[in-house]
């Protein structure tokens, strides 16, 4: 029997709705619903396979009839420690989490390559590098648009440091 641990960040206790502000509570509720749909779809597909036993991480806000197949982190236990502990008790771990702030990479390190079900760590590094290039391109386009607007208005950009030196007093006097 192969044992698989399924963890989805929002429904597995990653964010506590009590800590969310009133403005973001509606957004958080919508994300939790989407996270639950992803988690339940993965769980249903895995349970349909013969010889697979699935354990699902849940938060304190969810109630299940089958207690042995749903686990929760211990009170005060850090999320990565909980995921690492559960991964050691299973053959494989299927993790669904956002890639922002390096969260998915931290969970990958907690689970370990041997138990990880998903893309390789190198692929996520390439994805983050691509996101960095995209943001640099966006920043470049924003600056280029500002230069074009200044030219259309006929205004000149402020002089740089070297240009100020050339126009002003020389840096050193020749004697």
Distance between the termini: 90 Å
CATH class of the largest domain: Alpha Beta
- Please work out how many helical segments DSSP would assign: 5
- The fold-level CATH name of the largest domain is Rossmann fold
Strand content: 5-15%
Main sheet strand line-up = 3-2-1-4-5
Shape: elongated
**Quaternary form:** single chain
- Summing up helix and strand content along with how strands pair, one would put the structural category as alpha/beta
* Helical proportion, percent range: 40-55%
**Count of the separate structural domains:** 2
Q: Which CATH architecture of the largest domain?
A: 3-Layer(aba) Sandwich
Number of strands: 5
Uncertain residue segments: none
Instruction: Tell me the major beta sheet.
Output: 5 strands, parallel
Measured on Cα atoms, how large is the radius of gyration? 26 Å
Average the pLDDT over all residues and give the rounded result: 75
């Amino acid at each position: 029997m192969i044992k698989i641990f399924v963890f989805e960040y929002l429904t597995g206790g990653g964010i506590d709705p009590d800590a969310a502000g009133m403005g973001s509570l509606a957004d958080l509720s919508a994300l939790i619903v989407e996270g639950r749909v992803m988690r339940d779809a993965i769980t249903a597909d895995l349970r349909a396979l013969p010889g697979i036993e699935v354990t699902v991480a849940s938060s304190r806000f969810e109630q299940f009839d089958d207690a042995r197949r749903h686990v929760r982190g211990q009170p005060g236990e850090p999320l990565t420690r909980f995921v690492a502990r559960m991964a050691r008790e299973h053959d494989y771990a299927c993790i669904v989490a956002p890639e922002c702030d390096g969260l998915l990479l931290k969970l990958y390190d907690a689970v370990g390559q041997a138990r990880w079900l998903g893309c390789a760590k190198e692929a996520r590094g390439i994805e983050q590098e691509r996101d960095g290039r995209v943001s640099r391109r966006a920043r470049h386009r924003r600056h280029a648009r500002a230069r074009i607007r200044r030219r259309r208005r006929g205004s000149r950009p402020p002089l740089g440091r070297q240009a100020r030196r050339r126009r002003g007093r020389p840096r050193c006097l020749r004697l």
